[in-house]
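Quick start: load a record and inspect it. Here is Amino acid ABC transporter ATP-binding protein:
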Amino acid sequence: MISIKNVSKWYGDFQVLTDCSTEVQKGEVVVVCGPSGSGKSTLIKCVNGLESFQQGTITVDGISVGDPKTNLPKLRSRVGMVFQHFELFPHLTITENLALAQTKVLGRNKDAAIEKGLKLLDRVGLKAHAHKHPGQLSGGQQQRVAIARALAMDPIAMLFDEPTSALDPEMINEVLDVMVELAKEGMTMMCVTHEMGFARKVANRVIFMDRGQIIEDANKDEFFGSPRSERAQAFLSKILAH
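Running the structure step on this input writes:
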């Protein structure tokens, strides 16, 4: 579903990604972890063309992301993206937030878009809040709306960029629960996160990055049981000690 081959990226003279390669199969959940500044978010944003890259290839469902001829808006409409900050339109109601891209990008009629949006709101446990504006919801609720909005586009894969890092601790589980359900349903997912409990529960594979490189790419039992690199061992000992 997602193929990343020998991808390198620079900001001016600073190399932020170095020769990164990995694959994500259909229905697979891959967690990307590592210290801050290791290139995790940059890598995931390259997958749907939000960040450009200078070397290598990325294909999503056979479509080359870096090809100048590729229709990136069309590709992005098929790859759901959930950000650290919810990126909801504050002046629109929750229902309008969910319907907007469906009508503008997919060409759905408004009634069908609203119906689909309400079904997905129900699925993330927020149908009662459909008439509210984002500012009237908690952070966890807004992030669940953002996930519902991404799902409303019928994505072939979902990308999550630290979806719980801006939330209060009490709200984290309500977002992770929705992501766990998605994983159980077979959604292809790439998720940048520090939530190691989530990784242990649902990931098929864990990618560990440091200084712009993929240091480990292993199934989760192998990664948590016996990481090969000293860097990953040190990272896990700090994170899992608490």
